[in-house]
Amino acid sequence: MQRPGEAPREFVRRAARDKGKDVSRLFPDAFVLSADTVVVVDDRLLEKPADRREAGRMLAMLSGREHLVHTAVCLFHGRQGRLDETCVTTRVRFRPLTHGEIAAYLRTGECDDKAGAYAAQGAGNLLMERISGSFTNVVGLPMTHTLAMLRRAGLLSVDRSGAGLYVLAGGKP
């Protein structure tokens, strides 16, 4: 829940941090990557819709307008606590949507359990007119930033064998 006076970026950072802390307590010897994503329009937070009716209202609100997608990512180690954190913001503009298009999109089910009631990696991509920033952020995990975080922690390195781009690095925090 967003606290009174809490800015959307601060809310999403706190939510990601709290998730990571909770899981780290259960797995004190493990690295934990946690994230949370919110959509913001007119300084209003659009989290996951409670039902399709709410999802339809969210999509109508986004129709023909620009909004922000904030994703916070935290890396924890149970014994050491938080190791790193980032928050990435992407600007997305929806094209104007008709009532029929919104209804058809709702029937896909993609709106369920998605911040802002859409999935950019699926049919929700057809709702977008323009994106400025990280596409993977809109999907829910800003990969460039996340990979950089894992590299800084020594958990990921470039694969020199040519078999893949990255390899997980062994070792302790």
Detailed description of the structure:
The chain is α+β, with helices and mostly antiparallel strands and 173 residues long. It has one domain: Maf protein (Alpha-Beta Complex), CATH 3.90.950.10. Helix content is 32%, strand content 29%. Strands 2-1-3-4-5 form a five-stranded antiparallel sheet, with helices on both faces. β1 and β2 form a beta hairpin. α2 crosses α3. The longest helix has 19 residues.
Write the layout of secondary structure elements.
Layout: H1 8-26, E1 31-41, E2 44-46, H2 52-62, E3 66-77, E4 81-94, H3 99-108, E5 128-132, H4 135-139, H5 143-152, E6 156-158, E7 166-168
Antiparallel strand pairs: 1-2, 1-3, 3-4, 4-5, 6-7
Helix pairs in contact: 2-3
Short structural summary:
With 173 residues, this protein is an alpha+beta fold. It has five helices and seven strands. It has helices at 8-26, 52-62, 99-108, 135-139, 143-152, and strands spanning 31-41, 44-46, 66-77, 81-94, 128-132, 156-158, 166-168.
List the helices and strands in order. Answer: HEEHEEHEHHEE
Which runs of at least 5 residues are low in confidence (pLDDT < 50)? none
Tally the helices: 5
> What structural class results from the helix and strand content?
alpha+beta
- Per DSSP E runs of 2 or more residues, the count of β-strands stands at 7
Say what the CATH topology is.
Maf protein
CATH class: Alpha Beta
**What can be said about the biggest beta sheet?**
5 strands, antiparallel
Q: Give the CA-CA distance, first to last residue.
A: 32 Å
Spatially, the strands of the biggest sheet line up as 2-1-3-4-5
**Helix content range of the residues, please?**
25-40%
Q: How many domain regions?
A: 1
Mean pLDDT: 90
CATH architecture: Alpha-Beta Complex
Radius of gyration: 18 Å
Q: Outline, from the CA principal axes? A: globular
Beta-strand percent range: 25-35%
